[in-house]
TrEMBL record:
Pfam families: Lactamase_B (PF00753). Residues 27-159 form the Metallo-beta-lactamase domain. This is Metallo-beta-lactamase domain-containing protein. One of its GO terms (molecular function) is RNA endonuclease activity. It comes from the Bacteria. It comes from Parvularcula bermudensis (strain ATCC BAA-594 / HTCC2503 / KCTC 12087).
Length: 338
């Protein structure tokens, strides 16, 4: 069987014909394999879903009663048989529960990374290199300009700014799933033991992370009054919120706030300027250029298929090194969560 016969793009998403299942489909399907819980990969409306326990829990929290699918939880490394096709999941290092989908059939192994990163993340298992014939990689930051600095160093920038401006509130825009919890956990690792205030939109997912053993406490709601009814003084405090909240009327309650944004896109100064970000924090949940190319070298596949981003540069890099590479041109995926 050719790789294209085993796995190929369709309008609904990447489809495994022998197994009759889709990976991260963009439309409702009978059987879906979900790599992680971000909304552009994990949609509601599927008949059945195969994913890690954590991803299924994230989908249940995010979709509530809309998440009616039959659910099969797979632990990392656990193999299931789907219509004769072997399927197992390997850590992707992207967010809690994120996984690479490993498909095996007729002596052929294909790996679909979903979104991934290679640097340490205290909120989820590290990416695992899986040798394969066909490696299907994301390419969100697949340009040489994207080199993400040390995450600890970026968090220390935030703490230094807090010390420099003790009268101001630092509003940190961070995506609700993965980025917010990672920033909080890194703050804790840097010795920040004061309460961290969070926007209400982050509460359920932070609670879920803690239920899976990721310690984020102490967290407090970023409300105008505390539990005793006293007005909250946010001077000198760190508040984590969705990126869109930084420019909303909600942000006006804080004293002279310092707008911060945690994203790999903060490497591009114009993006920071457009968003009105005073303190850009280059913290990404995706692989940067070096991580992408190092991963391809480590996996050493017969063919590289590229999707979800800047395909051309990564394909050109691979071809210059004698590798077979091609774009997939999948549609329906966004990079808003970074």
């Amino acid at each position: 069987m050719t790789p294209e016969a085993l796995l190929h793009p369709t309008p609904a998403g990447l489809y495994c014909a022998p197994g009759d299942f889709y990976i991260d489909p963009v439309a409702p399907v009978d059987r879906a394999v979900i790599t992680h819980g971000h909304a552009d990969h994990a949609r509601s409306g599927h008949g059945s879903v195969i994913a890690t326990e954590e991803t299924l829990a994230i989908m249940a929290v995010r979709y509530g009663e809309e998440f009616t699918a039959r659910r099969t939880a797979l632990a990392y490394g656990e193999t299931t048989n789907v219509n004769g096709v072997g399927l197992w999941l390997a850590p992707a290092g992207h967010v809690l529960g994120s996984a690479q989908a490993v498909i095996e059939f007729g002596g052929l192994r294909m790996v679909v990374t979903g979104d991934y990163k290679r640097r340490r993340d205290p909120t989820c298992p590290a990416f695992e290199v899986v040798s394969c014939h066909i490696f299907i990689s994301e390419a969100t930051f697949a340009l040489p300009v994207f080199h993400h600095p040390d995450t600890g160093g970026e968090v220390r920038k935030l703490l230094a700014s807090q010390q420099q401006f003790p009268e101001r509130t630092h509003l940190v825009g961070a995506y609700a799933l993965g980025k917010a919890q990672r920033v909080i956990r890194h703050l804790r690792e840097e010795g920040y033991d004061r309460p961290i205030f969070i926007h209400g939109a982050l509460d359920r997912l932070c609670t879920l992370y803690e239920s899976f053993g990721v310690n984020l406490s102490p967290l407090l709601p970023a409300t105008l009054k505390d539990s005793s009814g006293e007005k909250t003084d946010f001077s000198g405090e760190i508040v984590i919120c969705p990126p869109a909240a930084i420019q909303s009327t909600w942000a006006r309650r804080f004293p002279d706030p310092v707008p911060c944004f945690a994203s790999g896109w903060m490497r591009i100064r114009q993006r920071a300027k457009q968003r009105g970000v005073e303190l850009p924090l280059i913290i990404s949940d995706h692989a940067d250029w070096g991580e992408l190319t190092d991963t391809v070298e480590a996996v050493d596949p017969d063919e590289l298929w590229v999707t979800h981003g800047r395909e051309d540069a990564l394909i050109r890099w691979a071809e210059l090194r004698g590798r077979v590479a091609r774009p997939l041109h999948l549609i329906g995926y966004e990079d808003d969560h970074d």
